[in-house]
Write a structure and sequence with these properties.
By secondary structure, the chain is α+β, with helices and mostly antiparallel strands. The protein contains 2 helices and 9 strands, in the order αββββββαβββ. The protein starts with a helix and ends with a strand.
């Protein structure tokens, strides 16, 4: 094979690689999703064997929105709500027309960068913190 043939072969491979890279650059890329105003995101870790309700109650609302915090899982939910609001924890088997024990409010939610992580530990203590991503359901949180 002559040097000219080798150069032409390498040039063809290079042209194909560049065409494929430029085609990849035309593909849509993920874009960040803005959380709309009036939408509250709450993330939780339930490190107990109990099932809890995580509640979000807007001031003046008749009943809270709620999500099921299953045993040994981490998850989250988004709720459309007007401010002010409170976030509570209630036993899952009770009447959920009330928010349960308040563990945070909109000030704590804002202080956590509009992502609130509730860690429910075995002693019934709740730790508030922030989380930067929306969680898919994560199982196996218990030791």
């Amino acid at each position: 094979m002559s040097n000219l043939e080798r150069l032409v072969g390498q040039g063809t491979v290079m042209a194909m690689a560049m065409a494929s890279l430029s085609a990849c650059s035309l593909q849509p890329t993920p874009t960040p999703v803005e959380v709309p105003s009036g939408q509250v995101w709450v993330e939780w870790e339930n490190r107990t064997e109990e099932t809890y309700a995580i509640t979000v109650l807007a001031d003046g609302a008749e009943s809270p929105a709620y999500g099921e915090a299953e045993p040994c899982t981490a998850h989250g939910m988004g709720v459309n709500v007007d401010e002010p609001f409170s976030i509570g924890i209630a036993p899952w088997d009770r009447n959920l027309s009330k928010p349960g024990r308040e563990v945070a409010d909109e000030r704590a939610w804002r202080a956590a960068g509009q992502r609130l992580l509730l860690v429910i530990d075995d002693g019934g203590q709740v730790t508030l913190g922030h989380w930067t991503e929306q969680r898919a359901s994560v199982r196996g949180m218990c030791p």
